[in-house]
Design brief:
Elements lengths: L2 H14 L3 E4 L7 E4 L4 E4 L6 H13 L13 H20 L7 H8 L3 H30 L2 H12 L10 H7 L7 H12 L3
Parallel strand pairs: 1-3
Antiparallel strand pairs: 2-3
């Protein structure tokens, strides 16, 4: 999904909530929604997916009293920024995106990089830890030496030159428990012919 397709998708979602949408090239802001009047106006030359998702969060939460556009100390604005990133991330993942393509996510959505990174990294790591904790025993049983070998071969195929290997980064990339550290270390050593 490219930027324009994402924007169109979000605008359709707004319309599903009975919000009448108007565009105006002269509107001085990116976008603004009025919950009471069920109206959103946006400037098509300035609009971003992040801003629409931000306004969509206000619609979902029925925020009537809001602060200024960039007032991150206002609870509604803070929540809208946070939820906008989560809404966009959910759409991104549903379209095949993953944390490995985080920069693509930021480029398409035009989300503030540091805010998005903090929110998604926390969500991603919490989910990863929860899944690992729930299935830790099953993961220990189900992975074998051949699967580990295939993961490692795939991992090293991304590099032109390998000077050092960070086994924890490798495990994280393939969503493997850190309990597989010793198994991965042994397989890397065998693959590279190290003692």
């Amino acid at each position: 999904m490219n930027k324009q397709e994402l924007i169109e998708y979000l605008l359709l979602e707004m319309e599903k909530h009975n919000i009448h949408i108007t565009s105006d090239d002269c509107f001085p802001k990116n976008a603004m929604v009025n919950i009471k009047r069920k109206l959103m106006i946006y400037n098509p030359t300035k609009i971003t997916a992040f801003k629409i998702a931000h306004e969509f969060s206000h619609v979902i939460n029925k925020d009537i009293c809001r602060g200024s556009e960039n007032d991150t100390t206002n609870p509604q604005e803070f929540r809208a920024n946070h939820e906008a990133i989560l809404i966009l991330w959910e759409i991104f993942e549903a379209n095949g995106g993953s944390y490995e393509y985080f920069n693509v996510f930021v480029d398409i959505t035009e989300s503030p990089f540091e805010l998005a990174e903090t929110i998604i990294k926390n969500e991603y790591l919490e989910m990863h830890e929860a899944i690992t904790e729930i299935f830790e025993d099953e993961l220990k049983v189900n992975i074998n030496k051949q699967e580990m070998h295939e993961y490692i071969v795939d991992y090293i195929s991304y590099f032109d030159v390998i000077e050092t290997i960070n086994i924890y980064q490798f495990l994280d990339r393939y969503h493997l428990s850190h309990n597989f550290f010793d198994m991965a270390k042994k397989e890397f050593h065998q693959l590279f012919g190290a003692d």
